[in-house]
What we know:
This protein has 208 residues and is of the alpha/beta class. It is 37% helix and 15% strand. It has helices at residues 20-31, 38-50, 55-63, 81-89, 104-110, 123-126, 133-143, 157-167, and strands spanning 7-10, 17-18, 76-77, 93-98, 119-122, 150-154, 170-174, 193-195. The strands form two sheets. Strands 5-4-1-6-7-8 form a six-stranded parallel sheet, with helices on both faces.
Amino acid sequence: MTIDVDWIFFDLGSTLLDESGAERRRIKETVAGSDVTYEAFFQAALEAARRNENGYKAALGRFGLTKTPWRPEEETLYPESGDLLERLSGRYRLGVIANQEPGAEQRLERFGVRRFFDVIVCSAEAGAAKPDPRIFLMALEQANCPPERAAMVGDRLDNDVIPAKELGMRTVWVRQGMGGLAVPRTPEEEPDVTIDRIGQLSDFLKRR
């Protein structure tokens, strides 16, 4: 399937940004001082992710542990992300819709990709978080773009595909990170396009 849109909105974590380092550190800090091993917690998170649940949150509940802070400084840019954004920026308008800790714009600047985005709407500043449709509507309003002329690209069926699809946006599921382990089970969870890594996105966009 080829997607024909004017705007492409991206999630950040496990979509453009590799969260694996931050994820490892968070789990280590979560299990520190407990009798739960890193491997046991990680496997529980993987099992939950395969059920289309938030793996970390589910593992916390299973072992009765306390949430520890996310360390965004441990995130890195996927190797293909910069090249992809460079290729798309002259052909499409680009934006971000993401659940992020404060300072996402500064982190994007540090990675050298802030300049590619015309609209950035993140939960810490927006006062709404995915899957709340309000955060998508905020971004679409800022872009002055109807939902049917926009695509949402993300790694989560629950946070990215379902709410964007309900609004009429086109959807691209990137099977990276834990979110990529889920399996669509209902028509609402079926994305328009599924890719295994972010660099494949341009193969499914209408040529301009």
